[in-house]
Design goal:
Number of strands: 14
Radius of gyration: 19 Å
Order of helices and strands: EEEHEHEEEHEEEEEEE
Strand content: 25-35%
Shape: globular
Helix content: 10-25%
Length: about 300
């Protein structure tokens, strides 16, 4: 695995899935896989999306034409001193599954991206591919729901894996470094006017403080707990059978702390049983599936 950073945004193409993973329309698998223009592929929940984007594999076998369903770590710190985020990190969210053989290339790229201090990288394991023969060891139905909120906001016809979402405003597969760099650049550009307009400060003694100008509509404040370790999981069955897949910054829980509509507001940091070794991040989002207005690490 390469250990170089992805910044600045330069890369070479990499193939996303093996030829044997390609399936015909007549296979018993409940969807399709195909290659995108840059040689990458993805799996999506609804096969009717193939007409609009020929590099998706979907979960549902049909979709209504008029109203398609939207799937749809040892340093000392002063306890009284807040950790100020002078600049909001770029938020990169990966939605993937251990049961999807399209996901490992994007996952490898995302793991390398965790080395960049300007990037807040979070990986969510979804469950809708569990039926393909392997139950994701980190899967959570709540993450399926969060991904579908993004798909609705981004006007996607269904969820797919892998899906990389940058600052809540730009998405793509991210299987090649070139593709991922493009998503990062577009996500940064699109969010330039709003990302970081809300300030987030984290203090072990006083909690989380969010401040900013009045908003046109209420934002949502989330606390995201994740495991920063690199964890290898052996996949015994399914499309990735026989592979050891690395995982890093795996999201364990997403908690809604409340809403924010400007001014200054403080939120307490809720405790979570068994969270030893976990880190957390705070996201201020323009509603479910909306753009990321502010973010900070805990």
């Amino acid at each position: 695995m390469m250990k170089t950073l992805l910044r600045p945004f330069r890369s070479s193409k990499s193939r996303m899935m093996s030829d044997k993973a390609m399936m015909s329309d007549k296979t018993m698998m409940p969807g399709k896989m195909s290659m995108s223009s840059d040689g990458s592929s993805m799996m999506a929940e609804n096969p009717s999306m193939m007409g609009e984007n020929p590099s998706m594999m979907t979960e549902n076998s049909s979709m209504m034409a008029e109203n398609p369903p939207m799937m749809a770590e040892n340093t000392e710190m002063m306890m009284d001193a807040p950790m100020m985020m002078s600049k909001a990190p770029t938020v990169v969210e990966l939605y993937q599954s251990q049961g999807c053989n399209s996901c490992p290339p994007a996952n490898d790229n995302i793991i390398r991206l965790t080395e960049d201090p300007d990037m807040l990288v979070l990986t969510y394991e979804v469950t809708y591919w569990d039926r393909l023969g392997w139950k994701d060891t980190f899967g959570n139905v709540a993450f399926d729901d969060r991904q579908r909120e993004y798909c609705r906001a981004l006007k996607k016809r269904g969820a797919y894996t892998p899906q990389v979402i940058v600052n809540g405003v730009e998405d793509g597969v991210g299987a090649s470094q070139r593709d991922l760099n493009s998503i990062l650049q577009k996500g940064t550009d699109k969010a330039a006017a709003t990302h970081g307009t809300v300030s987030v400060t984290v203090s072990p003694s006083s909690g989380i403080t969010v401040s900013g100008k009045a908003l046109s509509s209420k934002a949502v404040v989330y606390l995201v707990r994740y495991d920063p370790r690199t964890i290898d999981i052996y996949i015994a069955h399914g499309e990735n059978s026989g592979r050891n897949l690395p995982h890093k910054n795996i999201v364990k829980d997403v908690t809604k702390l409340g809403s924010f509509n400007g001014g200054e507001q403080t939120y307490s940091i809720p405790q979570m049983a068994g969270d030893s070794g976990l880190k957390f991040a705070v996201l201020v989002q323009a509603g479910p599936g909306g753009s990321i207005l502010g973010a900070a690490r805990g």
